[in-house]
Amino acid sequence: KELSTTDKKFITDLFAPLGLIIECTDEDKMDKVSMIAGCGIGYVAYFMQKLEHIARSYGFTEDETRNIVRNTFVGTLRHLDETGDSPEELIQAVATKGGITEEVLENLRKGNFSSLFSTAVQKGYDKIRKFTEEFKKE
Q1: Could you tell me the CA-to-CA distances from 22 to 31, 46, 132 in Å, in that order?
Q2: How far is Cα 101 from Cα 72, in angstroms, rounded to an integer?
Q3: Is 69:48 a contact under the CB 8 Å cutoff?
Q4: Whole-prediction pTM value?
Q5: CA dist., res. 77 & res. 42, Å (int)
Q6: How confident is the model at residue 1 (pLDDT cuts 50, 70, 90)?
Q7: How far is 77 from 71, CA to CA, in rounded Å?
Q8: How would you label 48-60 residue by residue, b for 16+ Cβ within 10 Å and e otherwise?
Q9: Which CA distances in Å does 1 have to 23, 105, 119?
Q10: How far apart are CA 81 and CA 97, in angstroms?
């Protein structure tokens, strides 16, 4: 709130080469950005690790496994960037009724994957809020 327009521009120009800039007007928003962007790298890598484990169990080599999983993620992101589709739209396009993808996703839903994931992220958020409060006391 106390930064001048010139100061904001200087800071933005300084950090822009590092990636996306989200202006946070309070600590809570900064914590939430950290939960999605900062920790999100770990969430995505964890999911990739699980897919690699499955690919290896199917008999693919380490190199094949790495290439399959990484190219799946890169291709998905490229498609979303090029089409402007939302993840929901892409899911609807690939999860055809009665198909294999629909079967897998339905089993994730039945297993409450969404709820489990949301709860796990909330636990992380609770922890970051605790750290923020402790930092304020110092």
Answers
A1: 12, 25, 19
A2: 14
A3: yes
A4: 0.82
A5: 17
A6: low
A7: 10
A8: eeebbeebeeeeb
A9: 11, 44, 33
A10: 25
C-alpha torsion 114→119→48→73, nearest 10: 50
Question: For residues 42 and 120, what is the distance between their CA atoms, to the nearest angstrom?
Answer: 13
CA triplet 86, 102, 99: central angle to 5 degrees? Answer: 120
- The tokens describing 84, both together, are 């402007």
The tokens of 91 are what? 């899911």
Please give the structure tokens belonging to residue 12: 């933005």
CB of 33 closer than 8 Å to CB of 24: yes
Q: Report the C-alpha gap between 132 and 24 in whole angstroms.
A: 15
Spatial separation of the C-alpha atoms in residues 74 and 107, rounded to whole Å = 24
Nearest alpha-carbon partner for 45 in 68, 64, 70, 67: 70
Averaged pLDDT, 19-41: 89
